[in-house]
Amino acid sequence: MDDSPRIARAAAEAAARQSYGKLLAWLAARSRDVAAAEDALADAFAAALERWPRSGVPERPEAWLLAVARRRGVDAVRRRLTSEAGREHLRLIAEEAEARMTDEDLPDERLRLMFACAHPAIDPAVRAPLILQTVLGFDAAAIGAAFLVPPATMGQRLVRAKSRIRETGIPFRVPERAELGERLDAVLAAIYATFAEGWLDPAGTETRRRNLATEGIWLGRLVASLLPEEPEALGLLSLMLFAEARRAARRDASGDYVPLAEQDHALWDHALVDEAEALLRRAATLGAIGRYQLEAAVQSAHTARRLTGHTDWEAIRELYDALLAVAASPVVAINRAVAIAEVEGAVAGLAALYVLGDDKRLDDYQPFWAARAGLLARLGQVPQATEAYDRAIGLERDPALRRFLQERRAALRH
User: Fold this and answer.
1) For the whole model, what pTM was predicted?
2) Which of 178, 191, 188 lies closest to 231 in space, CA to CA?
3) Which domain holds residue 13?
4) Between 336 and which of 83, 263, 282, 320 could a Cys-Cys bridge form, CB atoms 3.0 to 4.6 Å apart?
5) pLDDT of 81 over the 60 cut
6) Domains of the chain: total
7) Residue 121 falls within a domain, yes or no?
8) Does residue 360 carry a pLDDT above 90?
């Protein structure tokens, strides 16, 4: 049996996983046309699947793919551009295409591509999906499924975003220091959104979310390696690693949800925790403290239980106070209320929640109702707690977490 097709496909898949974003970023940074670069690269991979079974896998698959993609790109420009400016553009691309390419000649442009995808001119809701597609090669169907958007709708949004990059001349560059803050925030927020979608599936069993947490961490590592002096890039990576370290402890042997306070810390990935701690310490030496560093510090305080045997809720409450000042949001406020309840009692925690009562965004936000139910239960207010648990259960999609809330509600009767 001829194994050539299987070997060629495996090599192409490995090249796609390791180099897709790097190749696309290099092509797009020079043409300023993400969609055209994607088409050229897709043709190159198709050519690899056709030729490699016959000719063998080249010594440098990345260089082979780039050479083919560049030729396809030149052909496309030749067909499309006829103006004087177009001929000049074609001449420049052709000159580059004539140069011999080696792996060492290919600079890493992925960070520039991410900044283009997260430009203020791009709809914030499509930034994370656009980074997933351009840097990691996810298709619109997979991205749409992960973000609960119909594939056709997601495809249209991605096409519009790429057209906007081309039509408005969004630059492929890392911003200058003076403008880096806001733009970096957009990149980091897109990466965190990717991780969060995967984090919602703790067992990694949902096809639509499988690997998203891993890919988010991969993107976080990439940014941290390319911007090693940016404290918030390190802070985000630290935050994601703290969370990922607890994955194995989030469900018991039966698949039931285990709250953080009740998790067996022996099941945590201590190597990831140690790496997260080191990143957080390094970030603290580099400049102002930002949102992701504070959130990572909260996780650090929780994981300190593995060493001290108890949770320092006073420290967590102070961190949430600081976080609320830096990044005020209902999510932060809810977590702060829970910390207040641990320090000052359920009455104080409930009072902090009641302050949020007029925020309409909380009407359909499960953690708000779950926190409210838990505090009301601690105060013995059974009817109100039951009602809040009902709201939380109705809003929860995760079967394991829904069972957990149902058990807490049932316990009120006893």
Assistant:
1) 0.77
2) 188
3) 4-106
4) 320
5) no
6) 1
7) no
8) no
